[in-house]
Amino acid sequence: MAITDVAQYAHLNKTDIEMLGAELDAIRADIEESLGARDAAYIRRTIAFQRILEVGARLLIGGSRSKAGWITGTAALAFAKSVENMEIGHNVGHGQWDWMNDPEIHSNTWEWDMAGLSSQWRYSHNYEHHVFTNVIDMDHDLGFGVMRMTSDQPWEPRHRMQPLRNLLLAVGFEWGIALHGVHAAQNRVQSAEEKKAQSRAVLRKIGRQMGKDYGVFPALSRSRWRRTLGANFTANVLRNLWAYVVIFCGHFPDGAEKFAAEVVEEENKAEWYLRQMLGTANFDAGPLMAFASGHLCYQVEHHLFPDLPSNRLPQVALRVRALCEKFDLPYTTGSLQSQYLQTLRTIHRLALPDGDDSHRQRRVSASHKR
């Protein structure tokens, strides 16, 4: 059930929450004061690596005559696209590197390599999602408008199809993000002409993106255009699947709590911090997986400090985890497999009417007792 009193749920009083907020502010201040040349070198090195990897992957796809070469090139291209979307595009779009004052690596200028328009995504994601994380009817990333992710949302017959919708969303995640972004942008404006302008903007972006992946690059391959077309399509699907898994594992496994709308009515910054800690989840990852996921294996830390550079989140996580122990707060994490299976279970369970699900749960419980 959705939490209606965050402080009571966390067993913290007003003084405790203020102390928690002060310690988190101190973490932010320490990181901000230490940002410098090493951090700037990190993001520039990451961008260079991603671009070199993409070029190498495309050359291998177009030049190799073996199936193994095509598979290797396609896998490399999928990895390059994942890095561009998650470690670069997502994090640059959050303003994590705006402090550098580099006009290329800036939240207002970076356009990522996917169907959605980054300017529309920044509003739906940075504002609607990060400000109102997991608040029912306010955070529209809660199920992305196509799935029921909490029993507090009324069941409708259409929800029976959500296991299929989940599969389609996973395969076409960039399209889900694009639609999500344009709908949020249209909801911000009043006139029909402004709404049409938002639609035209995303259609232009889609046209450029599709033209690049399914027109220009296949054409450059000349007689081998089918190989390139297939590789681009496969790489996009693999990137979509990976982004979907990472995002869903950060928001919907067991322990990522949901909240009633009244909790934000008079919420202060320290209370907002607390809600972010309760409403998000991490997954265990080594350096390579952390890099590939845009460091969103540290989703708790990312939600506390969405505009701090991603390469600092492992350092931040040590201090946040210690705070959770100090204030007896849950620090939700687990293996990627475990977090995703929990999420998948929730998606399938909430596809059923609550009565049917309760009956099924009772039958399962009874069978376990027998």
Automatic annotation (TrEMBL):
Domain Fatty acid desaturase, by residue range, is 70-333
Domain of life where this protein originates = Bacteria
Name the Gene Ontology biological process terms: lipid biosynthetic process
Q: Give TM segment ranges.
A: none
Tell me a GO cellular component.
membrane
- GO molecular function per UniProt: oxidoreductase activity, acting on paired donors, with oxidation of a pair of donors resulting in the reduction of molecular oxygen to two molecules of water
Any Pfam family the entry gives: FA_desaturase
- Under which name does UniProt file this protein? Fatty acid desaturase
Q: Which organism is it from?
A: Mycolicibacterium litorale
- What lineage, starting at the top, does this entry show? Bacteria, Bacillati, Actinomycetota, Actinomycetes, Mycobacteriales
